[in-house]
Specification:
The chain is 28% helix and 17% strand. It is of the alpha+beta class and 198 residues long. It has a seven-stranded antiparallel sheet. The longest helix is centred in the first third of the chain and has 33 residues. The chain is globular and about 40 Å long.
Length: 198
């Protein structure tokens, strides 16, 4: 073989070897591309559509009535207590203090409040005044009223409602929507429905 033929054969072998090596490299890249995790691409998301905002309701929302010692007692009573240097605090469900509704059939009405006025909660004295109020619908009052009559209370009808009292003792006043208690029936005039203070 001539030198020229050897060069041609060598060139062909080099080209074939390059092609074979290129095929192996290309095949390896293809396998890697097939097993590689996909790359996140940015896609355009449509802008959210704006729905019209709801219009304000024309019906007023009822406000919650605050039931406190201040709201169940009249302004006149507040003035009398202030003149005596008395402050108020709640005694509902405490062991010491009045529990005027506890003996009612079925127990005391829900949301009852019992309040005490005196020189101070931490000052030991009998010089205090208790008042109590509870919501009680007219249709739910007969059991409590019957109980009081059985205990010796006398019923009398007033403009405000039905008064139950014992001579020289405490009194209960049943209105169309609540029941009120005071240690003396005369003090019932100082108790009001909390919504009257609003």
């Amino acid at each position: 073989m001539s030198k020229r033929a050897i060069w041609i054969v060598g060139a062909i072998i080099a080209v074939v070897a390059g092609l074979v090596i290129g095929l192996f490299v290309f095949a390896g890249d293809a396998d890697e591309a097939a097993t590689a995790s996909p790359t996140a691409t940015a896609t355009a998301t449509p802008a959210p559509t704006q729905s019209p905002s709801p219009t304000a309701s024309e019906t007023p929302t009822p406000t919650a009535i605050s039931v406190t010692c201040a709201t169940i007692s009249t302004d006149e009573f507040h003035s009398i207590m202030a003149e005596n240097g008395f402050v108020s605090w709640e005694t509902t469900d405490e062991q010491i203090g009045a529990q005027p509704f506890d003996a009612f059939p079925g127990g005391p009405p829900e949301d009852q409040i019992v309040c005490r006025w005196g020189e101070g909660q931490d000052i030991p004295t009998d010089n205090v005044i208790d008042l109590a109020w509870a919501p009680l619908a007219a249709g739910d009052q007969s059991g409590a009223q019957d109980y009081l009559v059985a205990q010796g209370y006398t019923r009398s009808n007033r403009d405000e409602g039905a008064l139950f009292s014992i001579d020289g003792g405490d009194g209960y006043l049943f209105t169309d929507s609540d029941v009120r208690w005071a240690p003396q029936a005369d003090y019932l005039q100082y108790i009001q429905s909390p919504d009257a203070a609003q």
